[in-house]
Amino acid sequence: MLRPNLQKAALCLLACAAWAPLAAAQPSEADNRIAAAVQPFVDRQELAGAVMLVADKDKILSQAAVGFADVAAGQPMRTDAMFWIASQSKPSTAAALMTLVDEGKVSVDDPVEKYLPEFRGQMVVAEKAPDHVLLRRL
After folding, report:
1. Looking at 28, 87, 92, 107, which residue is catalytic?
2. How far apart are CA 131 and CA 102, in angstroms?
3. Higher pLDDT, 43 or 25
């Protein structure tokens, strides 16, 4: 079962993905619809604030912010707000990696150094560790 914060993050990503085609056609309407999809979580105080972004490989198609960056001060969330997301990048990275696997662009058995040369020569520290760090083990 997903933790509540992870569920909310997944919902935000799903909402952004669902409106990606709309964002390409009418960015301002897309901004409003994306914000409207997430706003109820702020209204129910399940989320203090959120920034959502839809992009393709070339440009940002739509972005929106809802809620507060600082609830106590009543400071609204801005699309350029920076905030601590802790380990929330792990499931996003895993989903992106598995999408690339599904598309045949990478293999989970590839050494990490194939894509990130900076990892060349890095080894896993464990008993009976393999020779290379593989994407599968990240």
Report:
1. 87
2. 25
3. 43
